[in-house]
Amino acid sequence: MKSCEKPTNIFPLALVTLVGLFLINILGFIDTQTGSALGCGRDWPLCNGEIFPAEWDLHTAIEFIHRLTVFIDLFLLAFLTAATWKRYRTRKVIRVLMGICFAGFGGESALGAMSVFFQNPPSVLALHLGMSLVSFSALYLWTATLRQIETGKGQRLDTHDTTRIKQLGKWSWGTLIYCFLVIYFGAYVSFTGAGVYFQGWPFPTESFSQAHAALFIDLTHRLMALVLFLLILRLNLLACRMRLDRKDLWVGSLHALLLAVLQMFSGALLIITKLNLMAFLLHVTIVPLLVCSLSLLGLKTYSSQGKGRLMGSTLTH
């Protein structure tokens, strides 16, 4: 059902901002894995005491490009916020998503600045990744909402089977929360360096005498990843029951399941290649896509329980 509001051009701006934030996260991963976090020294927001550093090397270039991308995307986000607020501030879901996005972006920026001034422990570094995913997923839902409002694509998501919708919604939000825990622990494994001890997949071949406490850390991460896959498989089975009436939920659950499978095999590739940078980037690139897939599925079930009126229009593919 098409929105009755006059079309605007805010959605393209949101899409560009979303792509920019995605690049920020990828550059952040490269920054960390290449040891370039101090490529600009202990200065922030300046780089080695200058706006444009006089001397360059690979680490300086990576850190500088990362900071520049953050600066540009922050301006895009400011323009997007002003335009969205002016046009859609009466919509509760828009206000909530904007708030979550800014909270995540602010937390991510603060932790990023702290990493320059202090030697942060792995737990804090992992939290930085978590905050980046919060801001990205909120901006993704923000963008998806604008797309539906402004293009009017798709059909209404009304359904008479609210019991199944509610059940799927609970599993979706619960799985999303658990997914964040798995991602946080995975980042913790990475920042502690525990993953470098292992070569076997799906089970490590090293013994406790070889890896010590790192063995338990790695096994916990693999077990948590398996549970996440089973939860997403359960989501898929729940959505399958509604595939005739709610094809959008069925397709969304398939997306999540496919991304979960790809994430597991990218983890195997990471071990086989002995933590190769490209394998690592593939592994962390799938993560935000999986989070976005689960969050969109959750928002759709929320809309379908009679709460879509808060959006003024419901979300579809």
State the order of secondary-structure elements, H for helix, E for strand: HHHHHHHHH
Poorly predicted tracts of residues: 1-5, 154-159, 307-317
Query: Number of DSSP strands?
Result: 0
Task: Output the number of helix runs.
Answer: 9
Q: How many separate domains make up the residues?
A: 2
Structure description:
With 317 residues, this protein is mainly alpha-helical. The chain folds into two domains: 8-153, no CATH class; 154-317. It is 73% helix and 0% strand.
In short:
This protein has 317 residues and is mainly alpha-helical. It has helices spanning 10-33, 58-88, 92-117, 122-151, 162-192, 208-211, 213-240, 247-272, 277-307. Helix content is 73%, strand content 0%.
Topology, element by element:
Elements: H1 10-33, H2 58-88, H3 92-117, H4 122-151, H5 162-192, H6 208-211, H7 213-240, H8 247-272, H9 277-307
Attribute tags:
single chain, 317 residues, mainly alpha, 2 domains, 9 helices, 0% strand, disordered C terminus, COX15/CtaA_fam, Heme A synthase
